[in-house]
Each structure stands twice: as structure tokens, then as C-alpha cells.
Write a structure and sequence with these properties.
This protein has about 200 residues and is mostly helical. The chain has one domain (about 10-204): Alpha-lytic protease prodomain-like. Helix content is about 85%, strand content about 0%. The chain has helices at about 1-5, 10-45, 45-70, 75-105, 110-130, 140-170, 175-204. Helix 3 (about 45-70) runs antiparallel to helix 6 (about 140-170), helix 3 (about 45-70) packs parallel to helix 7 (about 175-204) and helix 5 runs antiparallel to helix 6. One of its GO terms (molecular function) is monoatomic cation transmembrane transporter activity. Its main location: membrane. InterPro entries: Cation_efflux_TM, Cation_efflux_TMD_sf. It is a multi-pass membrane protein.
Length: about 200
């Protein structure tokens, strides 16, 4: 009886345990893919790989924050969502800086390294999205985590298409154009997460 009055019921506890498990897995995957994408970006000279790597780093930090507030009241989750928006924005700024540097020298990235990294990154992102999809209509904490993962899949597809475009054209401009498109995606996502988090804070 005390359990029913003072704490979450067994269904809520089970849901929270499932959320924590999913967040731990996607955190580990994103930390690993960040390291892989960073090395591949440096080896290949691809700015779109770098944007993906920075996004994975931001996501790893975001999932860690999401994990910390599972089961917490709504205002805590909304504040963490604001942190997520800030991390997405930071990744966007990192991409913008690299774009500014690369526009002056649009050399084609090393295709073999870029292609392998793009395939591995997309596979990892699809798996993460699959893990988080059952929670996408839950609280703002899990909904924003799902949005981050969905962005990762879109970014993974874009980088893979970029590798194909570089192979077809032999030019580095495809890499730059896709990185610019990802920059816009990150900015829009940061604005959407911020809007939802502020709305949740006002309701709370």
C-alpha cells in the first residue's frame, strides 16, 4: 500500500528500467562512433564525417543526461532537453567552422575511408533509433532523445550519399554541400527541442 501511495507502480518501474537500458546502450554506441568518425574524418579530410562525429559526441552527452533524469519530475526533464538543444547547437557551430575552412579548399576526401565510416555509422544509428522508437511518444526526455537519434539516421544517410556523390564527381563540393545541409538540420532540431522544453517548463 505504501508502494502504491508513495512510489511508482511496477509498470512505471519496468518502463523506467527499459528506458535506462536503452539509453545506456545508445550512449555507449554514440561514444564509440564518435571516436571512429573523428579518426575517419582526420584520415579522409571529410567535413561531413566530422559533422557526424560531433553529432555523436553531443548525443553521447545527451543520452547521459537523459539517463540521469529518468523517473525525475517533468521540470528536470525539460531542463535536460534545453541542455540537449545547446549541445545540438554546439555541434552545428563546429560544423560551421569547418565549412568556413573547407570552402576555400574543396578537395575531395579519401573515398575508401569515408565510405567504410559512413556505412558503420549509419548501421549504428539505425540500431539506436530502433531501440528508442518504442519511447518516442513518452515524456519530453525520451521524445527528445528519439529526435536526436532520428537526426543521426538522417545524417548517416546523408554522409553515405555524399560518399557516392564524391565517387561520381571526384569533387569535394558534394561533401561541403551535405555538411551545410546537416548544419541546417541541426539548427532546426535545436530550435524544435528548445521550443518543446520551454513549453514543458511553462506547464510545470
Amino acid at each position: 500500500m505504501g508502494k502504491a501511495c508513495c512510489g511508482p507502480g511496477p509498470d512505471v518501474e519496468r518502463l523506467q528500467a527499459e528506458q535506462r537500458r536503452a539509453l545506456k546502450i545508445v550512449l555507449a554506441i554514440n561514444a564509440s562512433t564518435f571516436a571512429m568518425m573523428l579518426v575517419a574524418s582526420l584520415a579522409s579530410g571529410s567535413v561531413s564525417l566530422l559533422s557526424g562525429g560531433l553529432d555523436n559526441l553531443g548525443d553521447a552527452l545527451t543520452y547521459g543526461a537523459s539517463l540521469a533524469v529518468v523517473g525525475r519530475p517533468a521540470p528536470w526533464k525539460a531542463r535536460v532537453s534545453l541542455l540537449k538543444a545547446a549541445l545540438i547547437l554546439a555541434a552545428a557551430m563546429g560544423v560551421a567552422v569547418q565549412l568556413a575552412i573547407r570552402i576555400g579548399e574543396p578537395s575531395a576526401p579519401a573515398l575508401d575511408t569515408m565510405s567504410v565510416a559512413a556505412v558503420l555509422n549509419l548501421a549504428a544509428n539505425v540500431y539506436c533509433l530502433r531501440l528508442l522508437t518504442p519511447f518516442r511518444h513518452g515524456d519530453i526526455n525520451m521524445a527528445s532523445s528519439w529526435e536526436c537519434s532520428r537526426n543521426d539516421v538522417m545524417e548517416g544517410v546523408a554522409v553515405l550519399l555524399t560518399a557516392g556523390a564524391v565517387w561520381l564527381t571526384g569533387s569535394g563540393w558534394a561533401d561541403i554541400v551535405v555538411a551545410a545541409a546537416l548544419l541546417v538540420l541541426f539548427l532546426r532540431s535545436a530550435m524544435r527541442v528548445t521550443r518543446d522544453a520551454w513549453a514543458e517548463l511553462r506547464r510545470a
